[in-house]
Design brief:
EC number: 3.5.4.5
Keywords: Hydrolase
Shape: globular
CATH topology: Cytidine Deaminase, domain 2
Structural class: alpha+beta
Strand order of the largest sheet: 1-6-5-4-2-3
CATH architecture: 3-Layer(aba) Sandwich
CATH class: Alpha Beta
Family: Belongs to the cytidine and deoxycytidylate deaminase family.
InterPro entries: CMP_dCMP_dom (IPR002125), Cyt/Deoxycyt_deaminase (IPR050202), Cytidine_deaminase-like (IPR016193)
Pfam families: dCMP_cyt_deam_1
CATH superfamily: Cytidine Deaminase, domain 2
Bound molecules: tetrahydrodeoxyuridine
Strand content: 15-25%
């Protein structure tokens, strides 16, 4: 029996198509990207997180001379938020990335597989979907309405 999985997403050509809060999240993620520590890849990523109480936190990728010891922007930000506000729900996550010397043609940067898995953990824990946005440096944005849309057949605690 053949089955299909479909996901829907929104595409924004530039920031004029975003709402005020979405533009704020984009700006915060871009500002965080400026502080990324990425001397090895020269690929800078910033992330911002909107909580249900309206507060916004941000972070960036942190690399290491021992390569696997670094961490992506999404997990750096998410783990800090979860460590400090374990009971506050996450409403939206915005990721923006690109090479240090970015080019007009650089596309939106989607979260890596490991970050998707980490994000799923918190989406499942809070029993409420998280809007996930990922963007290029030129403000071209993709939005999915839940992290799980980006990770079909995800593994979570229900299997343990
Ligand atoms: N990176 C992120 O921070 N997030 C992503 O979604 C993709 C990749 C970082 C990891 C590494 O520091 C650099 O970008 C190049 O892979």
């Amino acid at each position: 029996m053949k089955k299909d999985i479909q996901i829907s997403y929104e595409y924004f050509k530039n920031s004029s198509e975003l709402s005020d809060i979405e533009n704020t999240l984009l700006a915060r993620a871009k500002a965080a990207r400026e502080n990324a520590y990425a001397p090895y890849s020269q690929f800078l990523v910033g992330c911002s997180v909107l909580l249900e109480n309206g507060e916004i936190y941000s972070g960036n990728n942190q690399e290491n001379a021992a390569f696997p010891s670094g961490l992506c922007a999404e997990r750096t930000t998410l783990f800090w938020v979860a460590a400090n506000f374990p009971d506050v729900k996450i409403k939206k996550i915005f990721v923006v990335g690109g090479p240090k010397e970015f080019h007009e043609s650089n596309p939106p940067i989607p979260p890596c597989g490991a970050c998707r898995q980490s994000l799923i953990e918190y989406e499942t824990k809070q029993s409420e979907d998280i809007d996930l946005y990922f963007s290029s440096m030129n403000d071209e944005v993709v939005k999915v309405h839940a992290v799980k849309d980006l990770l079909p057949f995800y593994f979570d605690s229900t299997f343990l």
